[in-house]
Amino acid sequence: MKNSLIWFCRITVGLLFIFSGLIKANDPLGFSYKLEEYFEVFHIMFLNGFALSIAILLCALEMLLGFALLIGVRAIKVAWGLLLLIIFFGFLTFYSAFFKVVQTCGCFGDAIPLTPWQSFSKDMILLVLVLVLFVNRTKIKPLFKPKAGDKWLIGAAIVSIGFGIYTYNFMPIIDFLPYKVGANILDEMKIPAGAPLDVFEVTYNLKNKKTGETKVMNDKEYLKTNIWKDANWEVVGNPESVLVKKGFEPKIRDLSIQDGQGNDYTKELLSSPFYSLVIVAYDLDKTNSEAMNRLNALAINATENYNIRTILLTSNSAQSSNDFAKTHKLVTEIFYADGVPLKSMVRANPGVLLIKNGTIINKWHYHSVPTYDQLVKTYFQKQ
Protein backbone atom coordinates (compact mmCIF):
# COMPACT_ATOMS: atom_id res chain seq x y z
CA MET A 1 0.00 0.00 0.00
CA LYS A 2 2.81 2.39 0.93
CA ASN A 3 4.67 1.68 -2.28
CA SER A 4 1.48 2.28 -4.28
CA LEU A 5 0.94 5.62 -2.49
CA ILE A 6 4.49 6.72 -3.27
CA TRP A 7 4.05 5.83 -6.93
CA PHE A 8 0.69 7.63 -7.08
CA CYS A 9 2.23 10.79 -5.62
CA ARG A 10 5.31 10.40 -7.80
CA ILE A 11 3.36 10.16 -11.05
CA THR A 12 0.81 12.84 -10.13
CA VAL A 13 3.35 15.41 -8.93
CA GLY A 14 5.78 14.63 -11.74
CA LEU A 15 3.21 15.02 -14.50
CA LEU A 16 1.70 18.17 -12.95
CA PHE A 17 5.08 19.85 -12.65
CA ILE A 18 5.97 18.94 -16.23
CA PHE A 19 2.58 20.17 -17.47
CA SER A 20 2.80 23.41 -15.48
CA GLY A 21 6.31 24.15 -16.69
CA LEU A 22 5.53 23.19 -20.28
CA ILE A 23 2.42 25.39 -20.47
CA LYS A 24 4.33 28.42 -19.18
CA ALA A 25 7.39 27.66 -21.33
CA ASN A 26 5.03 27.70 -24.32
CA ASP A 27 4.73 31.45 -23.67
CA PRO A 28 7.77 32.58 -21.61
CA LEU A 29 7.30 36.24 -22.54
CA GLY A 30 3.76 36.16 -21.16
CA PHE A 31 5.04 34.50 -17.97
CA SER A 32 7.71 37.19 -17.66
CA TYR A 33 4.95 39.84 -17.70
CA LYS A 34 3.34 37.99 -14.78
CA LEU A 35 6.66 37.92 -12.91
CA GLU A 36 6.97 41.66 -13.39
CA GLU A 37 3.60 42.07 -11.65
CA TYR A 38 4.96 40.16 -8.65
CA PHE A 39 8.18 42.19 -8.71
CA GLU A 40 6.08 45.35 -8.50
CA VAL A 41 4.04 43.99 -5.59
CA PHE A 42 7.19 43.14 -3.61
CA HIS A 43 9.02 46.32 -4.70
CA ILE A 44 11.85 44.49 -6.46
CA MET A 45 11.42 46.10 -9.87
CA PHE A 46 15.20 46.01 -10.37
CA LEU A 47 14.61 42.38 -11.41
CA ASN A 48 12.42 43.40 -14.36
CA GLY A 49 15.40 43.26 -16.69
CA PHE A 50 15.92 39.62 -15.75
CA ALA A 51 12.22 38.64 -15.87
CA LEU A 52 12.46 36.76 -19.17
CA SER A 53 15.56 34.79 -18.15
CA ILE A 54 13.99 33.95 -14.79
CA ALA A 55 10.77 32.87 -16.56
CA ILE A 56 12.61 30.50 -18.92
CA LEU A 57 14.74 29.02 -16.12
CA LEU A 58 11.82 28.65 -13.70
CA CYS A 59 9.75 26.82 -16.33
CA ALA A 60 12.71 24.57 -17.11
CA LEU A 61 13.21 23.87 -13.40
CA GLU A 62 9.58 22.78 -13.02
CA MET A 63 9.81 20.44 -15.99
CA LEU A 64 13.19 19.12 -14.88
CA LEU A 65 12.07 18.37 -11.32
CA GLY A 66 8.94 16.65 -12.61
CA PHE A 67 10.92 14.53 -15.07
CA ALA A 68 13.59 13.69 -12.50
CA LEU A 69 10.88 12.56 -10.08
CA LEU A 70 9.31 10.28 -12.66
CA ILE A 71 12.57 8.51 -13.51
CA GLY A 72 13.73 8.59 -9.89
CA VAL A 73 17.11 10.23 -10.49
CA ARG A 74 18.75 12.09 -7.54
CA ALA A 75 15.58 11.53 -5.53
CA ILE A 76 16.67 13.22 -2.27
CA LYS A 77 17.74 16.47 -3.96
CA VAL A 78 14.65 16.40 -6.17
CA ALA A 79 12.37 15.94 -3.12
CA TRP A 80 13.98 18.97 -1.46
CA GLY A 81 13.62 20.99 -4.65
CA LEU A 82 9.95 20.09 -5.04
CA LEU A 83 9.20 20.93 -1.40
CA LEU A 84 10.92 24.33 -1.51
CA LEU A 85 9.34 25.20 -4.85
CA ILE A 86 5.79 24.31 -3.81
CA ILE A 87 6.18 26.22 -0.54
CA PHE A 88 7.36 29.23 -2.54
CA PHE A 89 4.45 28.94 -4.99
CA GLY A 90 2.02 28.45 -2.09
CA PHE A 91 3.25 31.65 -0.46
CA LEU A 92 2.84 33.63 -3.67
CA THR A 93 -0.67 32.36 -4.38
CA PHE A 94 -1.78 32.93 -0.78
CA TYR A 95 -0.36 36.46 -0.82
CA SER A 96 -2.12 37.17 -4.13
CA ALA A 97 -5.44 35.82 -2.86
CA PHE A 98 -5.38 37.35 0.63
CA PHE A 99 -4.14 40.81 -0.36
CA LYS A 100 -5.89 40.79 -3.77
CA VAL A 101 -2.84 41.91 -5.71
CA VAL A 102 -2.03 39.67 -8.71
CA GLN A 103 -5.44 38.31 -9.64
CA THR A 104 -4.24 35.56 -11.99
CA CYS A 105 -1.15 33.72 -10.84
CA GLY A 106 -0.16 32.33 -14.23
CA CYS A 107 0.34 28.83 -12.80
CA PHE A 108 -0.88 27.26 -16.04
CA GLY A 109 -0.32 30.29 -18.25
CA ASP A 110 -3.30 31.47 -20.28
CA ALA A 111 -4.35 27.88 -21.01
CA ILE A 112 -6.11 27.35 -17.67
CA PRO A 113 -6.70 30.68 -15.91
CA LEU A 114 -7.22 30.21 -12.16
CA THR A 115 -8.31 32.63 -9.47
CA PRO A 116 -5.78 33.21 -6.66
CA TRP A 117 -7.77 31.06 -4.20
CA GLN A 118 -8.09 28.26 -6.76
CA SER A 119 -4.34 28.44 -7.31
CA PHE A 120 -3.67 28.36 -3.58
CA SER A 121 -5.96 25.34 -3.14
CA LYS A 122 -4.14 23.57 -5.97
CA ASP A 123 -0.79 24.32 -4.33
CA MET A 124 -1.97 23.00 -0.96
CA ILE A 125 -3.09 19.71 -2.52
CA LEU A 126 0.27 19.47 -4.27
CA LEU A 127 2.03 20.27 -0.99
CA VAL A 128 0.38 17.27 0.67
CA LEU A 129 1.51 14.98 -2.17
CA VAL A 130 5.02 16.44 -2.10
CA LEU A 131 5.22 15.96 1.67
CA VAL A 132 4.43 12.27 1.20
CA LEU A 133 7.31 12.05 -1.26
CA PHE A 134 9.60 14.09 0.96
CA VAL A 135 9.01 11.87 3.99
CA ASN A 136 9.63 8.79 1.82
CA ARG A 137 12.38 10.31 -0.33
CA THR A 138 14.81 7.46 0.39
CA LYS A 139 12.23 4.98 -0.94
CA ILE A 140 11.96 6.58 -4.40
CA LYS A 141 13.62 4.00 -6.63
CA PRO A 142 15.36 5.06 -9.88
CA LEU A 143 14.38 3.57 -13.23
CA PHE A 144 17.96 3.77 -14.53
CA LYS A 145 21.49 3.35 -13.25
CA PRO A 146 23.03 6.58 -11.84
CA LYS A 147 25.12 7.45 -14.93
CA ALA A 148 22.27 6.78 -17.34
CA GLY A 149 19.89 8.76 -15.13
CA ASP A 150 22.26 11.76 -15.13
CA LYS A 151 22.45 11.62 -18.93
CA TRP A 152 18.66 11.64 -19.15
CA LEU A 153 18.62 14.60 -16.74
CA ILE A 154 21.14 16.58 -18.79
CA GLY A 155 19.14 15.87 -21.94
CA ALA A 156 15.93 16.99 -20.23
CA ALA A 157 17.61 20.20 -19.05
CA ILE A 158 18.75 21.03 -22.59
CA VAL A 159 15.30 20.33 -24.03
CA SER A 160 13.51 22.30 -21.28
CA ILE A 161 15.64 25.42 -21.62
CA GLY A 162 15.77 25.10 -25.40
CA PHE A 163 11.99 24.92 -25.66
CA GLY A 164 11.57 28.20 -23.75
CA ILE A 165 14.21 29.93 -25.87
CA TYR A 166 12.56 28.66 -29.06
CA THR A 167 9.03 29.79 -28.16
CA TYR A 168 10.35 33.20 -27.10
CA ASN A 169 12.05 33.67 -30.46
CA PHE A 170 9.35 32.15 -32.66
CA MET A 171 6.07 32.59 -30.74
CA PRO A 172 4.05 30.05 -28.71
CA ILE A 173 3.48 26.63 -30.28
CA ILE A 174 -0.17 26.82 -29.16
CA ASP A 175 -1.74 30.27 -28.84
CA PHE A 176 -4.15 30.44 -25.89
CA LEU A 177 -4.70 34.19 -26.17
CA PRO A 178 -7.85 35.81 -27.62
CA TYR A 179 -5.83 37.20 -30.56
CA LYS A 180 -5.02 33.78 -31.99
CA VAL A 181 -5.06 33.04 -35.71
CA GLY A 182 -8.64 32.68 -36.95
CA ALA A 183 -10.17 34.87 -34.25
CA ASN A 184 -12.37 37.78 -35.29
CA ILE A 185 -11.39 40.68 -33.06
CA LEU A 186 -14.68 42.55 -33.34
CA ASP A 187 -16.68 39.41 -32.53
CA GLU A 188 -14.49 38.72 -29.52
CA MET A 189 -15.28 42.22 -28.23
CA LYS A 190 -19.07 41.85 -28.43
CA ILE A 191 -21.44 41.15 -25.55
CA PRO A 192 -24.33 39.02 -26.89
CA ALA A 193 -27.88 40.27 -26.39
CA GLY A 194 -29.36 38.86 -23.21
CA ALA A 195 -25.98 37.88 -21.79
CA PRO A 196 -25.92 37.89 -17.97
CA LEU A 197 -24.52 41.03 -16.42
CA ASP A 198 -22.43 41.43 -13.29
CA VAL A 199 -24.49 41.22 -10.09
CA PHE A 200 -23.45 43.47 -7.23
CA GLU A 201 -24.58 43.58 -3.62
CA VAL A 202 -24.54 46.90 -1.80
CA THR A 203 -23.73 46.73 1.92
CA TYR A 204 -24.73 49.43 4.42
CA ASN A 205 -23.07 50.05 7.79
CA LEU A 206 -25.76 51.43 10.09
CA LYS A 207 -25.64 52.99 13.54
CA ASN A 208 -28.46 53.86 15.93
CA LYS A 209 -28.01 57.45 17.11
CA LYS A 210 -29.81 56.80 20.42
CA THR A 211 -28.51 53.39 21.53
CA GLY A 212 -25.22 53.24 19.62
CA GLU A 213 -26.18 49.83 18.21
CA THR A 214 -24.62 48.96 14.85
CA LYS A 215 -25.88 46.78 12.00
CA VAL A 216 -24.63 45.62 8.63
CA MET A 217 -27.28 45.10 5.95
CA ASN A 218 -27.27 44.38 2.25
CA ASP A 219 -29.39 46.50 -0.07
CA LYS A 220 -32.31 44.02 -0.12
CA GLU A 221 -32.54 43.87 3.67
CA TYR A 222 -32.16 47.64 3.87
CA LEU A 223 -35.21 48.20 1.67
CA LYS A 224 -37.30 45.27 2.96
CA THR A 225 -37.09 46.27 6.63
CA ASN A 226 -37.82 49.94 5.86
CA ILE A 227 -35.05 50.84 8.29
CA TRP A 228 -34.18 53.73 6.04
CA LYS A 229 -37.44 55.39 7.19
CA ASP A 230 -36.35 55.30 10.83
CA ALA A 231 -34.64 58.62 11.67
CA ASN A 232 -32.76 56.97 14.54
CA TRP A 233 -30.68 54.89 12.14
CA GLU A 234 -28.00 56.53 10.03
CA VAL A 235 -25.68 55.18 7.36
CA VAL A 236 -22.07 55.33 8.47
CA GLY A 237 -19.57 55.98 5.67
CA ASN A 238 -20.25 55.11 2.06
CA PRO A 239 -22.18 51.97 1.05
CA GLU A 240 -19.87 49.20 -0.18
CA SER A 241 -20.54 47.52 -3.51
CA VAL A 242 -19.36 43.90 -3.76
CA LEU A 243 -19.45 41.69 -6.86
CA VAL A 244 -21.41 38.55 -5.96
CA LYS A 245 -21.84 37.02 -9.42
CA LYS A 246 -19.70 37.56 -12.48
CA GLY A 247 -21.61 38.20 -15.70
CA PHE A 248 -20.56 37.54 -19.28
CA GLU A 249 -17.14 38.91 -20.10
CA PRO A 250 -15.95 39.19 -23.72
CA LYS A 251 -12.55 37.69 -24.46
CA ILE A 252 -11.32 41.08 -25.68
CA ARG A 253 -12.52 43.95 -23.50
CA ASP A 254 -9.66 46.44 -23.33
CA LEU A 255 -8.82 47.24 -26.95
CA SER A 256 -9.32 50.79 -28.17
CA ILE A 257 -7.38 51.98 -31.22
CA GLN A 258 -6.96 55.74 -31.57
CA ASP A 259 -5.11 58.22 -33.70
CA GLY A 260 -2.79 60.91 -32.36
CA GLN A 261 -5.74 63.22 -31.62
CA GLY A 262 -7.61 60.60 -29.60
CA ASN A 263 -10.21 59.75 -32.27
CA ASP A 264 -11.41 56.14 -32.11
CA TYR A 265 -10.55 54.05 -35.17
CA THR A 266 -11.15 50.59 -33.72
CA LYS A 267 -14.17 49.67 -35.84
CA GLU A 268 -12.90 51.31 -39.01
CA LEU A 269 -9.54 49.55 -38.96
CA LEU A 270 -11.00 46.18 -38.04
CA SER A 271 -13.89 46.25 -40.52
CA SER A 272 -11.87 46.56 -43.71
CA PRO A 273 -12.72 43.84 -46.26
CA PHE A 274 -9.14 44.03 -47.57
CA TYR A 275 -5.87 42.79 -46.15
CA SER A 276 -4.16 45.02 -43.60
CA LEU A 277 -0.66 44.53 -42.26
CA VAL A 278 -0.52 45.55 -38.62
CA ILE A 279 2.92 45.96 -37.06
CA VAL A 280 2.56 45.75 -33.29
CA ALA A 281 5.34 47.34 -31.24
CA TYR A 282 3.97 47.93 -27.76
CA ASP A 283 7.18 49.74 -26.74
CA LEU A 284 9.17 51.49 -29.47
CA ASP A 285 11.95 52.26 -27.00
CA LYS A 286 12.62 48.53 -26.59
CA THR A 287 11.68 47.31 -30.05
CA ASN A 288 14.16 45.63 -32.39
CA SER A 289 15.22 48.47 -34.71
CA GLU A 290 16.70 46.18 -37.37
CA ALA A 291 13.43 44.24 -37.54
CA MET A 292 11.47 47.50 -37.85
CA ASN A 293 13.62 48.50 -40.83
CA ARG A 294 12.93 45.15 -42.53
CA LEU A 295 9.20 45.47 -41.84
CA ASN A 296 9.22 49.01 -43.20
CA ALA A 297 10.72 47.75 -46.47
CA LEU A 298 8.02 45.07 -46.57
CA ALA A 299 5.34 47.71 -45.94
CA ILE A 300 6.65 49.88 -48.79
CA ASN A 301 6.39 47.03 -51.31
CA ALA A 302 2.98 45.90 -50.04
CA THR A 303 1.55 49.42 -50.22
CA GLU A 304 3.01 50.40 -53.58
CA ASN A 305 2.28 47.15 -55.44
CA TYR A 306 -0.93 45.88 -53.82
CA ASN A 307 -2.30 48.93 -52.01
CA ILE A 308 -2.14 47.04 -48.70
CA ARG A 309 -2.91 49.25 -45.75
CA THR A 310 0.00 49.09 -43.30
CA ILE A 311 -0.42 50.18 -39.71
CA LEU A 312 1.91 50.59 -36.75
CA LEU A 313 0.21 50.00 -33.40
CA THR A 314 2.06 51.21 -30.31
CA SER A 315 1.50 52.41 -26.77
CA ASN A 316 4.15 55.13 -27.02
CA SER A 317 3.19 58.78 -26.99
CA ALA A 318 2.44 60.52 -30.28
CA GLN A 319 5.61 62.62 -30.04
CA SER A 320 7.80 59.60 -29.30
CA SER A 321 6.19 57.61 -32.13
CA ASN A 322 6.60 60.42 -34.67
CA ASP A 323 10.25 60.83 -33.73
CA PHE A 324 10.76 57.08 -34.18
CA ALA A 325 8.94 57.18 -37.53
CA LYS A 326 11.16 60.01 -38.80
CA THR A 327 14.34 58.26 -37.67
CA HIS A 328 13.39 55.01 -39.42
CA LYS A 329 11.57 56.68 -42.35
CA LEU A 330 8.42 54.62 -41.65
CA VAL A 331 5.67 54.64 -44.28
CA THR A 332 3.03 53.09 -42.03
CA GLU A 333 0.12 54.90 -40.49
CA ILE A 334 0.53 55.18 -36.73
CA PHE A 335 -2.24 54.38 -34.27
CA TYR A 336 -2.24 53.98 -30.52
CA ALA A 337 -3.57 51.49 -28.00
CA ASP A 338 -2.89 50.48 -24.42
CA GLY A 339 0.17 48.31 -23.89
CA VAL A 340 -1.75 45.45 -22.22
CA PRO A 341 -3.79 44.35 -25.28
CA LEU A 342 -0.80 44.98 -27.54
CA LYS A 343 1.28 42.54 -25.47
CA SER A 344 -1.52 39.99 -25.92
CA MET A 345 -1.88 40.52 -29.66
CA VAL A 346 1.52 39.08 -30.49
CA ARG A 347 4.34 37.92 -28.20
CA ALA A 348 7.00 39.95 -29.97
CA ASN A 349 8.18 43.55 -30.10
CA PRO A 350 7.66 44.03 -32.99
CA GLY A 351 5.27 41.41 -34.26
CA VAL A 352 3.05 41.37 -37.35
CA LEU A 353 -0.64 40.57 -37.83
CA LEU A 354 -2.33 40.06 -41.19
CA ILE A 355 -5.98 41.06 -40.76
CA LYS A 356 -8.99 40.94 -43.08
CA ASN A 357 -12.60 41.73 -42.08
CA GLY A 358 -11.40 41.88 -38.47
CA THR A 359 -10.17 38.28 -38.62
CA ILE A 360 -6.56 37.47 -37.85
CA ILE A 361 -5.44 35.59 -40.96
CA ASN A 362 -1.95 34.99 -39.61
CA LYS A 363 0.59 36.45 -37.19
CA TRP A 364 4.35 36.30 -36.90
CA HIS A 365 7.26 37.03 -34.62
CA TYR A 366 9.72 39.39 -36.29
CA HIS A 367 12.11 36.44 -36.59
CA SER A 368 9.69 34.49 -38.76
CA VAL A 369 7.89 37.10 -40.88
CA PRO A 370 7.54 35.78 -44.48
CA THR A 371 9.30 37.58 -47.30
CA TYR A 372 7.37 39.96 -49.53
CA ASP A 373 7.26 37.36 -52.33
CA GLN A 374 5.88 34.72 -49.94
CA LEU A 375 3.16 37.10 -48.75
CA VAL A 376 2.24 37.94 -52.34
CA LYS A 377 2.02 34.31 -53.38
CA THR A 378 0.12 33.14 -50.29
CA TYR A 379 -2.20 36.10 -49.63
CA PHE A 380 -2.05 39.29 -51.73
CA GLN A 381 -2.59 37.66 -55.14
CA LYS A 382 -5.72 35.96 -53.80
CA GLN A 383 -7.28 39.11 -52.35
UniProtKB/TrEMBL annotation:
Residues 3-134 form the Methylamine utilisation protein MauE domain. It is found in: Membrane. It comes from the Bacteria. InterPro entries: Methylamine_util_MauE. It is a multi-pass membrane protein. Its main location: membrane. This is DoxX family protein.
